[in-house]
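Mods, move this if it's the wrong board.
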Amino acid sequence: MPELIRIGTLELRFLRDKHETRGSLDLMEMTVPPRGQMPVAHYHRDWDRSVYGLEGTITFTVDGTAQDIGPGGSLFIHRGVVHAATTHSSAAARPRSAQTIARPGGTPSASAPPNASASSPASGPTATRYPAPAPNASVAIQAKATL
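Not the wrong board. Structure tokens:
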């Protein structure tokens, strides 16, 4: 049964979580109200995120670059890259998001780039390294999903 978590006017409905998928996937739908936004820009240390637009248009800002995602649109966010989302329209937006962890060979370090530890953020042309999120970040979501 899906679990609903509300943060202000933002809603996250978890369809599958890390506990059901042996730590390999969190699948959620997010509803962002008209002219709404994520409470804080953030990143995921260990998870990549794929976003697929279901309804409305949501603007994801990923590593400082804005990208609109409408119905049928998609976006991939590498682990370690800061992102946030807003809606600028008079209609709510509802994207589906999957957070996945890939561990080839079954070890956390197998997916790390050369000369990097398994816990370091992604590197590459679209990734920026940032400090860890503030400890008072959304406890409800952290308990449900791996941020």
